[in-house]
Amino acid sequence: MFFFLKSLSRSVHDGEHHQEPEIKITDGIGTSTSLTVWRKSLIISCNGFTVINSHGDLAYRVDNYIVHPDELILMDGSGKSILTMHRRKKLGLGDGWLVFEGETSGCCSRKKLSKKPIWSVKKNINILQTNQNVLAYVFRGNTEKRHSYVIEGSYTQRSCKVVDETRRVVAEIKRKEAISGGVSFGVEVFLLVVQPWFDPGFAMALVLLLDQMFS
Q1: DSSP letter string over 8-72?
Q2: What is stated as this protein's family in its record (predicted)?
């Protein structure tokens, strides 16, 4: 399976190199990170995600034993927990999540972890049918006074972007429509393109939360 993913990643990135070369290089600031996201866990009995970098190496993974968990753990390629997301237990219409560094469960690792959330993410509820393009708001820490990022577009169509307060795009989710190397790409396999000034791990965490909110 992993060898299939490596070849899948190369097919995606080779196809993107010919069709959308602009996602590879930013405007004089540095090189963006392009990740192949597969909406499938490496463990057969789990739901989750497998993320491969442009070199064909395992970058991130997520293994969930239930479909809609209250906790999500993003691991790096070696299996180390780097971010943990907890569903916010709060009355209200919106689906909210708190993002912590490391793994927040388990007594053995508790001393190494931040006790306070570093980010909070809230689903946009469009009661008045305004800002229909906005999917979610991202706030620093546990406050919702002023958002730092906005996620716009359509996750179900795998076409959305994360923008900062100046409307600068920091990360994008792109659907792969082409057939390259005999592989047909649908909504289960897509691209996550992250600009060099944004953390790719946090960008992947936002993908996980969008999947919970809109799947």
Answers
A1: HHHHHHHHHHHH-GGGTB-SSS-BPEEEEEESS-SSTT-EEEEEE-TTS-EEEEEEESSSS-SEE
A2: Belongs to the LOR family.
